[in-house]
Write a structure and sequence with these properties.
Helices cover about 50% and strands about 15% of the residues. The chain is built from five helices and five strands, in the order ββαβαββααα. β4 and β5 form a beta hairpin. About 20% of the residues are buried. The protein binds glutathione.
């Protein structure tokens, strides 16, 4: 069990609610936003813990060996990887359902989840986003080339 102190929220983000679901992340993370969107849509009470100051600490790595967020804790059960988390939430809070009701629809959904994880996110966030932040795309030609290549790959 994790011993981090927690800040309580519900999916709506306003009320103070005790819950055995805790989401660990940091506020600017797009993957954390995905989990928050699902919790919010399902009106599921949860506790948010801002892990930003503790990223990379032994406590964080005990929850996520790959040094990332989000992490979901439900009672004693700890889970990482956004797609696994949202699939778990779909079972835990089945209504309203957030997945299509046909095999083809669900297959397409999984195709998009995989494409975002494998292709869009690495190029658009890591290569373009991080390169822009570090260089501003003015001072370093190599950086501009990385951004141009990443945009082409993401297309
Ligand atoms: N495959 C992971 C990716 C999660 C991920 O990359 N999260 C980013 C935030 S959006 C992160 O933890 N970054 C920390 C870092 O790169 O140091 C998932 O699906 O949950």
């Amino acid at each position: 069990m994790c011993s981090f102190p927690r800040e309580s929220r519900t999916g709506g983000g306003m009320e103070q609610t005790m819950s055995d679901v805790t989401l660990f992340g940091f506020p600017h993370s797009s993957f954390v936003h995905i989990v928050q969107l699902v919790l919010t849509h399902k009106e599921a009470p949860y506790t948010f813990y801002d892990l930003e100051p503790d990223m990379g600490s032994p406590k964080h790595l005990a929850l996520h060996p790959f040094d990332r967020v989000p992490i979901l804790q439900h009672g004693d059960f700890v889970l990482y990887e956004t797609s696994a988390i949202v699939a778990y939430l779909e079972e835990l809070f089945p209504t309203p359902s957030l997945q299509p009701d046909t095999p083809q629809g669900r297959a397409r959904m999984h195709q998009w989840i995989s494409a975002v994880n494998s292709y869009y996110y690495p190029y658009m966030i890591y290569h373009v986003g991080h390169e822009r932040k570090s260089s501003g795309c003015r001072s370093w030609k190599g950086s501009c080339r990385t951004i141009r290549d990443s945009c082409s790959a993401a297309r």
